Amino acid sequence: MADVKKTVDAAAEVKATEKAAEKKVAEKKAPAAKKAAASKKTAAKKAAAPKKAAAPKKAAAPKKAAAPKKTAAKKAAENVFVEYRGKQITSADLIAKAKKFSGVKSPKVVNVYVKAEENKVYYVVDDNAGSFDLV
Fold it and tell me: What are residue 51's DSSP bridge partners?
């Protein structure tokens, strides 16, 4: 049971670190947003200035043919398998089990920890911690 507490504490530390990183990113974005707002005000003032007589328009240049659309490269399939005592389970299965056992219908954060030597899987789903047998 002490191992579960350590795992939950470690997960809480990771979460706190992630939140601190998000705050730093938000702080960096704030000055950029202020600059953007200032430039919009300047642009609005310029637009409000009286316009001079429009110069005669030149004949429109012929439009170029649209460039062919680039297709996004397909992402390679990625799978992680855990093998223990002659059995195999995928990481997706472990995550699905953690969601099921936690009882959270649409979780925001799912952390799964595998301790094969103990035949246990520990999870933290939106601050709900628990465990189940690996195989």
Answer: none
Strand 87-90 relative to strand 110-115, pairing:
unpaired
Regarding pTM above 0.70, the answer is no
Identify the DSSP state of 118.
Answer: G
Per DSSP, the residues of 2-61 read: HHHHHHHHHHHHHHHHHHHHHHHHHHHHHHHHHHHHHHHHHHHHHHHSPPPPPPPPPPPP
Q: Report which secondary-structure segment, H or E, holds 91.
A: helix 91-102
pLDDT in tens, 95-118: 999 999 999 989 999 999 999 999
Across-strand partners of 88?
83
CA-nearest of 85, 88, 84, 134 to 112 is 134
Pairing label, strands 120-125, 110-115? antiparallel
Both structure tokens of 95: 């995550």
Domain borders along the chain are: 79-135
